[in-house]
Design goal:
By secondary structure, this protein is α/β, with parallel strands linked by helices. It contains ten helices and twelve strands. α4 crosses α6, α7 packs parallel to α8 and α9 crosses α10. Bound molecules: NADP nicotinamide-adenine-dinucleotide phosphate (NAP).
Length: 269
């Protein structure tokens, strides 16, 4: 399997690993294995350069990731064409708490705010940032339809949903271009969503591929085992890994590239 991959039928080609940017913008209300400080501008710029040099073109952000969008707007200036940006609508994080609004009116306003913060004319992928009530959002609130309209208007290139349930993931796969789902060594229950993305030719972005850094022992090399798991599935378009540590990014890319390498032919050694 190759490093650059079709994102379902969107016409977009994503690198097998994407860079998640929660830790570029938000250090409150997060559940990582170890404490951390937001990287300063220099380290953040160096991290993005490293990601690019390692072949990554996908960057994942959200209004709910604190300063992430605002910072990316500055950091990506002059290199916007090198990246596919994935952002979200529906969740805001203000005063240390999440607030949700999935209405079509707010969806558009949120997207306009993201375009401004990211200093771009178009966002490549926009996902509904679910609060967990996936089916209600999909069936009753009109959020996906609002994003579909924004796509028609050229404000975004593809739309979908970051889901939290199997039923929601299946419904999102049927009704949109891209699903972001959790799939890792310790949480495999959303596998049917990945199967559906494969059979419907929809984009599938894996979040929490390293279980947020909470992987228990017993997997040998847990990073390699995680990448082997997600890339063994034909439905995976890309795994979005959330790191601010250069050595970890190197290790994650190496593990993903090893996972994608075809096995040696029989009898070759
Ligand atoms: N609802 C949603 O839409 C949603 C929810 C969760 C996540 N996401 C997206 O998915 C991205 C990834 O999810 P995540 O950050 O929660 O989880 P993750 O990628 O599974 O884990 C990230 C954690 O693993 C550590 N890590 C990374 N590479 C490592 C390595 N080689 N060795 C040891 N530790 C390593 C990171 O620490 P270091 O920084 O020190 O490397 C970080 O604390 C997020 O940034 C976000 O973009 C979306």
């Amino acid at each position: 399997m190759s490093w650059m991959r079709a994102l379902g039928s969107t016409g977009l080609a994503v690198s097998a690993l994407g860079l998640g940017t929660v830790k570029l913008g938000r250090d409150q209300g997060v559940n990582y294995a170890a404490g951390f400080q937001l990287p300063d501008e220099r380290s953040a710029a160096a991290l993005l350069k490293l990601a690019r040099d390692l072949g990554i073109n996908l960057i994942d952000t959200a209004p709910a990731y604190g300063l992430s969008e605002e910072r990316l707007g500055g950091l990506l200036a002059g290199q916007r064409g090198d990246w596919l940006i994935c952002s979200k609508v529906g969740e805001e994080f203000e005063g240390g708490r999440s607030r949700f609004d999935f209405s079509p009116e707010y969806t558009r306003r949120s997207l306009e705010n993201s375009l401004r913060r990211l200093r771009t004319e178009v966002i490549d992928i926009v996902l509904v940032h679910s609060d967990g009530d996936d089916l209600r959002i999909i069936e009753e609130l009109g959020t996906l339809q609002a994003l579909e309209q924004c796509k028609r208007e050229g404000l975004i290139r593809a739309f979908g949903m970051s889901t939290k349930t199997v039923a929601g993931g299946l419904a999102a796969a049927a009704a949109s271009d891209v699903v972001m789902l959790t799939y890792n060594l310790e949480r495999r229950e959303e596998l049917p969503v990945l199967d559906a993305c494969a059979s419907l030719n929809k984009g599938a972005l894996i979040k929490k591929v390293l279980a947020g850094g909470h992987l228990a022992g017993g997997y040998g090399d847990p990073v390699q085992a995680s990448m082997d798991l997600v890339f063994a599935h034909p439905g995976t378009s890309a795994a979005v890994v959330g790191t601010i540590t250069a050595d970890h990014l190197h290790a994650d890319v190496e593990a993903a590239r090893r996972a994608l390498k075809p096995p040696p032919p029989p009898g070759s050694g």
